[in-house]
Amino acid sequence: MTTTLLWVSLILLSLAMLGALYRLLKGPSIADRIAALDTIGILLLSMIAVLGITTGTRAYFDIILVIGILTFIGTTAMARYIERGVVLESGDDGTNN
């Protein structure tokens, strides 16, 4: 019963990922595409977590942490690019020169 529910959740997560992929490709604005990319990252994390629970392996949880960090950094960088036009500005290293 539990295994069946986990596989159903994997199928539903993959369908949600297809919807987010559609928004990523057809999104009318850059903000929509960034939100879709972030959603795909979160859905990928969820799918890996469900797969880890299904197989009973803890090795997947390290992968989840890495993907979560990369998703956060990517979303933050893209939001900063939309706001300012650049990701890193000159003098943006924290020093007061």
Topology at a glance:
Blueprint: H1 2-26, H2 30-55, H3 60-84
Structure description:
The chain contains three helices and no strands. By secondary structure, it is mostly helical. The longest helix has 26 residues. It is flat and about 55 Å long. 4% of the residues are buried.
Low confidence ranges: none
Biggest sheet descriptor: none
Number of helices: 3
Q: Indicate the percent of residues in helices.
A: over 70%
Q: What share of the residues does DSSP label as strand, in percent?
A: under 5%
Radius of gyration: 17 Å
Please provide a brief summary of the model.
The protein has 97 residues and is mainly α. The protein contains three helices and no strands.
Structural features:
single chain; 97 residues; mainly alpha; 3 helices; flat
